[in-house]
Amino acid sequence: MRVLPEPSAQSLRLVFLFVFVMDVAPSPALTAGCPDRCVCDDQLVVQCAWQQLSDFPVDLPLATRQLIISNNRIGDLPALQLNYLSDLVYLDCSNNSLTEISESTFGNLRKLAYLDLSFNSLTQIEDRTFGPLSSLVMLRMTDNPGLSEIHVDAFAENAALQVLDVSRNNLTALNISSLIALPALRSLGLSGNPWRCDCDTEDLYVTQCVMYEGQTVCQGPPDMLGQRLAEVGMQLRLECHQGLGYWDYLFFIAIGFVIFSAGTVSAWVMGVLMVLYERYSKRKSEEFDSEDEEETHRNNAHTHTKLFPVLM
Question: Where does this protein have coiled-coil stretches (predicted)?
């Protein structure tokens, strides 16, 4: 039997080092490094809050599941860097200096379930801004003092959305036709906005999924100032869909009289024309009969003359 050579001490050290490295290898979240002034753990969480960051952190682990960049001075979310994080499910961007977001910002974040954009400087939300976020369950977008416009279809494709909070912004109106169609939506935060309670935004005030209802009040028109949305909902429904007034009834009566008169006159004219036509036809028939009788009489007389010439 052949005897194998005894391994050297150097070989044993290499084998031991290999085994040790394999046992303590860092998680995928750490293999790509960790941004400066951020903390990364083996639970795929990257914590960058309260670090006075003015730019979006670079060198983020590609396997990051939770990213917290709140309470900084970040003014932009770069789509290219953010969309590399395709496994991201939790993103907290609150209390920063964000001024705008677009559809491309979240283009590849299909697993994202929680998004917080509160306490920023957003001014408007455009069409399909959140369209790629097919798994989004909760969206907080409160306390943006300049946010005055949200496109009617901004959330049209977020079928999984359950909680939407747009409280304490500068919204005066919100078309919720697409929101009502969302099957999972159960909570809609509207409080703290200067709502204008009129017929143009009537649907907003009759919806039943309003949270913080006690603080959700009208800021205009003057006769509804300070009233809660829940209180003015039915009032607006009645005012915007009220019944016919006095002048409406007079108008319909006048129209009915005109139609009736026109029908009566038309029937009378038709009757007169029918009588005249009947008389004309009868007279023409009598004239034809008279001519036929005269012709018959002449024919008879001529025949009699030929048969009895002598007598004539």
Answer: none
